Amino acid sequence: MKSKIVASVEFYYKGEKFIPSATIELFKYMDSKGQIPSLHMLLAQENGIDLYSYEYEIMLLENIRCTQAEGLATLCITNGEFDVEIFQGKWQEAKCHDILQSIVRRTMNIDNLDEHPELKCALIEAYQVGKNER
User: Fold this and answer.
1) In angstroms, rounded to a whole number, what is the distance separating the alpha carbons of residues 43 and 33?
2) SS3 for 2-33, per residue?
3) Which residues pair with 12 in a beta bridge?
4) For the segment 54-109, what is each residue's pLDDT rounded down to a tens digit?
5) 129 pLDDT exceeds 90?
6) Nearest Cα to 9, choosing from 61, 62, 85?
7) Does the structure show a pLDDT above 80 at 50?
8) How confident is the model at residue 125 (pLDDT cuts 50, 70, 90)?
9) Distance of CA 89 to the CA centre of its chain
10) CB burial class (10 A; 0-12, 13-18, 19+) of residue 59?
11) Are the C-beta atoms of residues 123 and 104 closer than 8 Å to each other?
């Protein structure tokens, strides 16, 4: 599953206008780290801005604008602002659904778990219990 955004921020530093931007593959971070790092930090790294510079500190004062969303990210942008927490929650739900769908397809020959809401609910509850017991 793919999900990405184009993030940018506009700011002035030493009288010069900067508009760093980057295409961010969100699932890459969710799959490897389980969360999305700071978008400011990602923009700085992608655009060669030192994280320990005044330029970065100025950049941190401005809001990041997100456009060209794809996949799950389209559900998490309002007026150009990307809600990382909502995305991470929706990603967890999608991952859970994919895992459960794979299990019921293999063990019960059910191709669409959504057509069995009671089974889906029970499996999600069991998944959450197992996840919380780790």
Assistant:
1) 18
2) CEEEEEECCEEECCEEECCEEEEEHHHHHHHH
3) 17
4) 999 999 999 999 999 999 999 999 999 999 999 999 999 999 999 999 999 999 99
5) no
6) 62
7) yes
8) confident
9) 9
10) buried
11) yes
> Residues in the chain, how many?
134
Which 3 state secondary structure label does DSSP give 53? coil
The CA distance from 25 to 87, in Å, is 13
Give the tens place of pLDDT for each residue, 87-101. 999 999 999 999 999
The two tokens of residue 45 are: 């790294």
Q: What is the DSSP string of the chain?
A: --EEEEEE--EEETTEEE--EEEEEHHHHHHHHSSPPPHHHHHHHHTT--TTSHHHHHHHTSPPEEEEEEEGGGGGEETTEE-HHHHHHHHHHHHHHHHHHHHHHHHH--S-GGG-HHHHHHHHHHHHHHHHT-
d(CA 110, CA 107): 8
3-state secondary structure of 42: helix
34 pLDDT exceeds 90?
no
